[in-house]
Write a structure and sequence with these properties.
By secondary structure, the chain is α/β, with parallel strands linked by helices. It has 11 helices and 9 strands.
């Protein structure tokens, strides 16, 4: 099984890339399983948030070299379809309505950095290593490029992609690829703290936060954006979650997000 899925009673889903012998490199089968699983989870009201990790001490070493070599030898249409499938996986992860958290240890190379850039929150072990190694294989980090440029900016992407230098967690934190570094042995505690914080939020509101960021990105404040954001605020205040959340605050109790509400 190349992808292990678990969900606890709180709705916390853990997806573990499970190709440790290949440092969890992405091959067509794993890409397909990831895409199908993420789409199903997006539609599942039971799933509250998604944790993404890797088995065997590494996060993800990027694309599987043997699989890429086979794709290169295929007809052009087949080669492009293979690349498009990879891009669709990143898009589904990026657009997921649930909060997503990358829990990174060991190697996060190439496409593994793309997975991190698509997640809402990224935690890394102090010993984690990051690299965009594609140019040393005669390739480019093409389908992950848009997500990396958005996450760390064009200048940092150029520096890492051109040099293919391996950098540590401190650099990843500095450029904004990860949000927090945990000393080795403390990564799970950091993960659990973030999970608890995320579970305090309303599921529908969290989905709308992600929509809000998408509509605000690369747009200057103005009349059109003001109208969209004001409408979103008004809808949220009148929603079942909004009513429950405001009532819970005034009544000095924790809101019950398990109550029926629109998501």
């Amino acid at each position: 099984m190349d992808l292990i899925e678990t969900m606890d009673e709180r709705g916390v889903v853990t997806l573990t890339l499970n190709r440790p012998q290949r440092r969890n490199a992405l091959d067509p089968a794993l890409i397909r399983h990831m895409t199908e699983t993420l789409r199903r989870l997006d539609e599942s009201p039971a799933a509250r948030l998604v944790l993404l990790s890797g088995a065997g001490g590494n996060f993800c070493a990027g694309g599987d070299i043997e699989s890429m070599k086979r794709a290169a030898a295929a007809a052009r249409e087949e080669n492009e379809e293979d690349a498009l499938a990879l891009g669709k996986m990143y898009d589904v992860l990026d657009q997921l309505s649930k909060p997503t958290v990358a829990v990174v240890q060991g190697a996060a190379f190439g496409g593994g950095m793309g997975l991190i850039a698509c997640c809402d929150i990224a935690l890394a072990a102090k010993s984690a290593k990051f690299c965009l190694s594609e140019v040393r294989l005669g390739l480019v980090p093409a389908v992950v490029g848009p997500y990396l440029v958005r996450a760390i900016g064009g200048r940092a992407t150029r520096a890492l992609a051109l040099s293919a230098e391996i950098v540590g967690a401190d650099c990843a934190l500095q450029i904004g690829l990860v949000h927090e570094i945990a000393h080795d042995g403390g990564l799970l505690a950091a993960r659990d703290r973030i999970v608890e914080a995320l579970l305090l939020g309303a599921p529908g509101a969290q989905a709308d936060v992600k929509r809000l960021v998408r509509i605000c990105e690369d747009r200057a404040p103005g009349a059109s954006l003001l109208k969209e954001t004001a409408r979103l605020l008004a809808l949220r205040r009148a929603s079942a979650e909004g009513v429950e959340g405001l009532s819970g605050f005034l009544e000095k109790r924790r809101p019950d997000w398990r109550a029926p509400c629109e998501v």
